[in-house]
């Protein structure tokens, strides 16, 4: 599974980072009272995802990068879902010839 981790940002009540996956979308992160705790949790998340796993983790350092990557990945995902199957045109022509 591909996951994009956002940077640690200030939130009401503390600091947090968000995650995005194609399967689950945006997941708001837990709010930590101290910035050091949020950074530590983010680093653990990065390490745990990269340890012997086939997951692809992308850790963003800015909010702009996080937004750009998630929008780009969403666009690719939508284009992949909308793309016709490899032989769809061929099959359509054959079906029209047979069934008129």
Summarize the structure.
By secondary structure, the chain is an alpha+beta fold. The protein has helices at residues 35-50, 63-82, 88-99; strands spanning 2-5, 9-11, 14-16, 19-21, 25-27, 56-59. The chain is built from three helices and six strands, in the order βββββαβαα.
Task: Supply the key terms.
100 residues; two-stranded antiparallel sheet; alpha+beta; 3 helices
Distinct helical segment count: 3
Shape: globular
What radius of gyration results from the CA coordinates? 20 Å
Strand order of the largest sheet: 5-4-1-6
Query: Mean pLDDT, nearest integer?
Result: 79
Structural class: alpha+beta
Distance between the termini: 44 Å
- Largest sheet properties: 4 strands, mixed
Order of helices and strands: EEEEEHEHH
Which range does the strand content fall in?
Answer: 15-25%
Number of strands: 6
Low-pLDDT stretches: none
Helix content, binned percent: 40-55%
């Amino acid at each position: 599974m591909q996951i994009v981790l956002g940077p640690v940002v200030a939130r009401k009540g503390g600091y947090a980072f968000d995650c995005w996956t194609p399967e689950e979308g945006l997941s708001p992160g837990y709010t930590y009272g101290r910035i050091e705790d949020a950074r530590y949790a983010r680093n653990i998340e990065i390490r745990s995802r990269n340890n012997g796993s086939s997951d692809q983790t992308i850790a963003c350092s800015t909010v702009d990068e996080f937004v750009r990557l998630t929008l780009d990945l969403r666009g690719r995902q939508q284009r992949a879902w909308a793309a016709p199957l490899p032989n769809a045109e061929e099959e359509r022509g054959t079906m029209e010839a047979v069934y008129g």
